[in-house]
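Here is one chain, start to finish.
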Amino acid sequence: MKKSFLLITIFFISYNLSKATHNRAGEITYTCDSLNPFHFYFTITTYTKLGETADRCDLTVFFCDFNDSAIFFRVNGPTGICAAPAKMGEPINGTVKKNIYTGEHTFGSGPLLNCKIMIEDPNRNGNINNIPGSIDVPFFIVSTLSINPFAGCNSSPVLLNPPIENACYCKPFVHNPGAYDPDGDSLSYSLIKPFGAGGVIIPCYVLPSGASINPVTGDLTWACPGAETSLANCNSAVGAGEYNFAILIKEWRNGRLIGTVERDMQVTVDANCNNNPPVVHAKDTCVEAGSFFSMEITAEDTPFNGVLDTIKLIANGGPFQMSPDSAEFVDVCCNTSVSSVFQWQTNCNQVRKQPYNVTFIATDDNNKPLSDSKTIKISIIGPAPVLTAVTPIGNSLVLTWLPYTCPTAIGYKIYRKLGCSNTPFDFCETGIPASSGYQYVTTINDLNTLTYTDDNGGAGLLHGQEYSYKIFAFFADGSESRASIEKCAMLKRNVAIITNVSIFKTDSTIGKDTIRWVRPTDFDSIIQYPPPYRYLIYRGATLIDSTDGIANTIYIENNLNTEANQYTYRIDFYTINNHTLIGKSNTASSVKASAVPSDNSINLSTSFTVPWTNYKYYFYKENPTLPDTYTLLNVSNQNSFTDVGLINGRKYCYRVLTEGEYSDITIAKPLYNMSQKICAVPIDITAPCAPSLSVAPDCDNLLNILSWNNPNLLCADDVVGYKIYFSTKQNDTLRLIDTITTATTIKYMHTPDSLSIAGCYSITALDSFNNESVFSDTICVDNCPIYELPNVFTPSGDGINDLFKPFPYRFIRPEIEMYIYDRWGVLIFETNNIKVLWDGFNYKSKQECDDGVFYYVCTIKEIRLAGDVPRTLKGFVQKISSEKDGKAK
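Its structure:
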């Protein structure tokens, strides 16, 4: 603790002695020790004014708070006046020095959340336009790290592009920090206000208008540099000069924030530019791991008064930091239009969920150089697995594929859909997009597994349907490869395939179902299964009949309750001679129609379980004068429909026809199946909307006046009355106090009791079918208590003002506490009577008090919505007696 205190003390002494223009920009980055997740290596990079007397050979770095610190030495540049091992830093142009300080620190064992790594250096450089009094404002930068055993070792992003930039007055400016995360974590960007002394946001800092940052790419753009609107109370300067920005880079892993880096950067705006910034041309792309990628990058200067400058084009980014197989780009310069080729021999180790950022920067050679940058995202994606075959076996399909070419993957995911479309995905599309229609089947967590048997989770796949499969590989960080080319297959046609279960007649006892199927065509061997053949017909688990011969593919079942029941069928295919089962069909049910009555309408829907796909629905209504004849109401691709404009209380009947098909093109289509006849009577079960209630209290007349709107004018047509609910307290349960039986009555007067009108009201509407709306908003009103006492009374016996008593009073509990004292503080009267009624006599001695001033303390209880509320009144009253019994007093 003493060591930390001394460091802080020395630091602030240094601050007072070194008040000189100094710091311009900087950031703190760190690397995690892969062998010890509690040990970190830190790099502090600062940019200072070249030639200033204030120079730092070392910096004090604080960890998590100001009680834990260490000294880091500057490690770049030549040796000089700094004591070893510190060095002198490196000039990077005529006005800027780059300083790199390094050190390491081990944190205590256990998890750590958002630990701040901080440095504070006494002074920024002077005359920063958007930091008033910047020479007196300390330079403070901070990064955060977390230690989580579940997240693993984490290193911060590295910022590859320098934070010192030039801009021209009111000409578009762009900067990208060139953040590269070695762990492949996701990064997001935002602009924040920079920090001053103690890590507190700098007062009066002005974020330049028109400046913004892309939260995904990190591009900081400034539409019109220098065109500032100052804050009146801060006197911020505008126009040319230096401006500082603070960029917060957040690092995310598996959706959780695991660290941040703050970059404090500076842009110098020149008011007298005789040039325009150049323009860089590049675009985002993706690359399949293992392939060689190249892209030509171009840049050209834009003319100013017809004059072009020559430009230099360079590149920065994570792909250049890799070893082996790092990217290559040859810097080019010295022409008004330049180009160079970015190239990269990729490999499987570079596959990751997050794209790589590469920033291309073009700078002109003007004496006041301007630049443009373009940051592109390059996604390295895993190649598609090669699906070689999909083979039918029984009611399953067996998938096989080649060994995957990227050993860094950890498994496969398998998807399927009905039908075979052969529609290719976009080259940069990874995984399976939801819009493709494919459904997830399973995950295989073993890269060496090269086969999978799909039996639909044990339920078996459907005969007559063609299935399409795609697979892709996935990696440890959640990234996914491109999907394979689809492979399609069907089960063998070695079973009967049901095509129809249609209700021929609706009845509770003599109903009929019609079942149709197509014959098997692909059973393995006529030698293995010699004719003759037989179909066994099952309803549910019950064998109901059989038919001989392969060509007989229709069956009508009689005497069913098709009015109430939905039946499911299965056809088993046998050889007759040796009674050998060749195969079982998938089950198929009849179409069950449902009708739900509502107000002047009936909601129709269907349900079914069939192996084919239904895609169209025909809704029919029975003609009221011609039983069993129907009119088509609607055709829809949805299996529900609402018939409206009906008469409540009248019976309506319907049937629904479904249209569908198998994806096997050899099975005739479409397939039509009819539901049973379903009838319903529309009835109003829809409650009207609640009225809108208002309540006006009338304290003088001890009543509340309720008023509301008639819902028939807004949301209903058959409101016939209202129910009024009331509670005496705000949180009590509302109780019914009255029912109004006419819809046109929209006003009501209510007196809760003789002492109070406080309470809460709500109202509901009733329609002609006694449907009650929801409660309206609860409206509460309070009393307006009054209890006033006079300041003089004249107990002369003339019957006028003889007693000290309140006038007026209301909404007060009858019991009060009244104490009256003479001018010496002697209690001469007390009562609990709300009317007081003091006649001027001492209540103990029974003697009349002399005229004069008397003082009272009175506690009353006001009757309020929240309950009884005590209130104490303090005041005085003057007793004046003019004549009594004909004598002067």
